[in-house]
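# step 3/5: fold
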Amino acid sequence: MARTGRPKSENPKKKLIGLKLTVDEAARLKEYASKHDMTVSQVLQKGIEIQYEMDITSST
C-alpha cells in the first residue's frame, strides 16, 4: 500500500523555542507579519538570518 500525506522534508523543523513578549511587542510582531503576508515564525526566522548576515559582514 502506498503512503499518503505530505512528503518528508530534507531538513525537518523539530526544535521548539518559547519566547516571552510584552502585549505591545506581540501586537507589533503580529501586525508586521500580517502586513508583509508572513507568519510570525517566518518573521522570526528571517530576523535570525538577518542577524547572522550582519555578524558575517561586520567581522570581515
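# step 4/5: annotate
The radius of gyration is 16 Å.
# step 5/5: archive (pending)
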